[in-house]
Amino acid sequence: MRKRILLVTLLVSVLGLVLLTLLFSGMSYSRSAQAASGQLSVLMDMYAADHISAPLSDETAQALSAEMGGTRVTFLLADGTPVGDSEVPAAQLSSHAGREEVQAALRQGEGTAVRRSATLGKELVYYCRYFSQQGVLEGGGAAEGFLVRFSGEASSFFGVFTQALPTLIWLLLLDLLICLFVAWIATSFILQPVERLTQAAATAGNKPVRTEYPELMPIAKMMNEMNAEIGAQMAKMQEDHRMEKLVLNSMEHGIVIFRSEQDVLLINKPAMRLLDYEKNEPIACFTQDGEIASILAAGEPATVNRRLGEREYSLRFTFGDRANVLLITDVTELMAAARSKNDFIANVTHEMNTPLTSIRGFAELIGAGAIPPEKLPSVADTIIRQSDRLSNLIRSIINFSAIDADDLPDYEVDLSEVLRETAVNFEPSLRQKDIAFTLEVEGSVKVLSRRERLVEIVNNLVSNGIRYNKEGGRLQVKLTGGEEPALSVSDTGIGISKENQSRIFDRFYTVDKSHNGAGGGFGLGLATVKKLCRRAGWKLSVESEEGVGTTFTIRFCKKK
């Protein structure tokens, strides 16, 4: 601040001196022009007294100029035509009728002007006077009234300023010294209260800052407000830190942020409990578990599973430049799901082995010639049925697994057309069980999806409605349009109990075990429907009463 005050004081002083110099230079320049004009007026009086009768010619102008110390002399007719000049032959000069001093002389008898001469390239003062008597022209002619113009060099503004420049430089140096001295004393006096206020603010602590100077009271007030705001922010930060700690400790996951085995930066309560951690002690598993110790030594992201207590946890290590993170996640349910998946695979393997064993057994009997010729058609029919069963199982598994990999773009599909084609395809199955089928479609309903996905959904719902229906039962498929199209498939089959309704969409789950594998029913149809609906954002619901029937409803996304 002291430097700024010194600099501003110096700049203001220098600027003032420069402006004063320019002002005095302008005044000197104006006075110089007035003095030159007065001198030319005196010379004009001398001409009027002694040389008025001389011929108006270049020779007369040159002689008169020499007599007057080099003053330029120009003779002009009343219309501004030059007839004599001491510097340039009059014949080479253009008319001067438009010159300021000439027009003034014609109006009021005399005129003065200051300008740069285009002929001589200098700044000149021009003085012109009109004489009404007859003038003698070169060659014996006469002119009724004529003009005489004298001109001389005038000091330019730059010249006047240059003359004043040495004085200006000395004044600037003197001003610099005086300003430095005065500004130093002034700033010390001015800044003393500010320095006291600064010292008071630094040592005030929680107390309010006070000052005896009214001018500094707004600053003291602002400091007190800032201190209060900083205090509030510190309190908020402490509260935020407390809340963050509360959130971390309330998480189910364990979190450890550490630099090394013994340098633990942060650990929440779940991690402390799971790792049996004592403050300021190294984490036991970091040093006692060989695999974890190898991960820490390698410094590469890795995940290991460990049983801690009665549950299984995943320990995910990530490494950074400044700190490392260990995330402990309870994976007991995930591991159980994985085991369940393995069980399902075992079940599927069993389901596949059953038809394969049957096919192989009959094939071996045929190859050995152990089957009478009259029984061969029956055996062939059995082999075909077992092959179809195996094929349906494989196709169901492939279709279900392929849903996640399907990333093709959606397009508008006419669902009403898909339903009509499905009705035609299932006519044989419907006739076989004597099921009364009705299809209700409200016009053409288009849905944003892919045709093969909708075919898969409709086929699974209709085939379930046939497979689990009663002989002579009813099956109704209804499609409504509007802003939110809906598809419902209702049957009068065996129905689903309340306890089973939450599981019917699980993979490989079937309500009636007696139908498992019959006609391709392996518990993947409804799981596939649910997966496709969830992928598309559609709402799938089921209403069922055991022994009465079941209705599946899909509500498609609203039209945009």
Brief digest:
The protein is of the alpha+beta class and 560 residues long. It has 15 helices and 17 strands. It catalyses: ATP + protein L-histidine = ADP + protein N-phospho-L-histidine.
Characterization of this structure:
It contains 15 helices and 17 strands. It has helices at residues 2-50, 58-67, 100-108, 157-204, 217-250, 269-275, 284-288, 290-298, 332-368, 376-402, 415-425, 427-432, 451-467, 498-501, 525-536, and strands at residues 72-77, 82-85, 110-116, 123-136, 142-153, 254-258, 264-267, 302-308, 311-319, 324-330, 411-414, 436-441, 446-449, 474-480, 486-491, 539-545, 549-555. It has five domains: 2-159, PAS domain (Beta-Lactamase), CATH 3.30.450; 214-244; 251-330, PAS domain (Beta-Lactamase, 2-Layer Sandwich), CATH 3.30.450; 345-400, Signal transduction histidine kinase, dimerisation/phosphotransfer (DHp) domain (Helix Hairpins), CATH 1.10.287; 404-555, Histidine kinase-like ATPase, C-terminal domain (Heat Shock Protein 90, 2-Layer Sandwich). Helices cover 51% and strands 21% of the residues. Residues 516-520 have low confidence and may be disordered. With 560 residues, the protein is α+β, with helices and mostly antiparallel strands. The longest helix is centred in the first third of the chain and has 49 residues, at 2-50. 21% of the residues are buried. A five-stranded antiparallel beta sheet has the order 2-1-5-4-3. Strands 7-6-10-9-8 form a five-stranded antiparallel beta sheet, with helices on both faces. Strands 12-14-15-17-16 form a five-stranded mixed beta sheet, with helices on one face. One of its GO terms (molecular function) is phosphorelay sensor kinase activity.
